[in-house]
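#random but structural
TW: two for the price of one
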Amino acid sequence: MYPIIKNIHVSSVVLTFLFFFQRGIWMLQDNSVLQQRWVKILPIFIDTTLLLSGITLIIILHQYPGSQAWLSAKLIALLIYIIIGSIALKRGKTKTIQATAFLLAIATFFYLVSVALTQSAIPFLVWF
């Protein structure tokens, strides 16, 4: 069961990033496609799949936030990513704020992926 859930999780990670990135480009372009129903619904489906597969992996592997520093760091970074992403795509009052939040959300996303790949709260030290 683990390989299937992990593949679903990794696929969801890729899809959530690609679609977030695309929506960010549309936001920067003031593209009206952002107002289409499917653009609002698809991220909910992808992110729900991502969350459920992540929770399932936690249960299967018995690695829980709080007991694993890297998993706690990943969870905190995920919350930051959600908040910054929301500012980028919806809540930013100016285009400058939205664009800055968009770049910060991308950086946070790559930190999340780095933490997951290295299983270290400070992944950049592992690479050097």
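TW: number two ↓
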Amino acid sequence: MKYEAKNFENLLGLPGFSDNLLKNHFVLYQGYVANTNKLSDQLAAYLKEDKVAVPEYAEIKRRLGWEYDGMRLHELYFENIGKNTSPISAGSELAAKINETFGSLENWQKDFRATGAMRGIGWAVLYLDPLSKNIFNIWINEHDTGHLAGAKPLLVMDVFEHAYLLDYGIKKADYIEAFLKVIDWAEAEKRFNK
């Protein structure tokens, strides 16, 4: 099955994000989709030729996780931001869980900001453990390192330099503040309730 890049041009004009930054980010995302398809095709060809024991097969298999996660994390990221967003619904189950876990939305934001501001490249993700119903702000290093097995991403923030450098230079904290203003809490709540 071929993956198709989603169109996120509805985000153009997003406050705090220049169109130039967004367009560059969309092209990067489209590359992850293309590479996921390319690597999937290469793996299928190796399998068909019974070449699954060659080093190239193993390296492509490893690389597929990185490209696939890059594709999916970007989709989750673009889907959980928007121009016409509203604050988290105070009566929602997600708001109750945030308050239970962090004490308040403000404390959650403090922890999420700190997670995103860590040195290095990666992702800050609010995760739900579907078994325990616990939530966590987690740092994902690269695309494929640091995920909580079986956990569901509720809110994803890209903190690779490509997500902010054109608009904010090295001021990652300013980018994080801009991100927090455009969170589509309805999307996060929908993910929480699925």
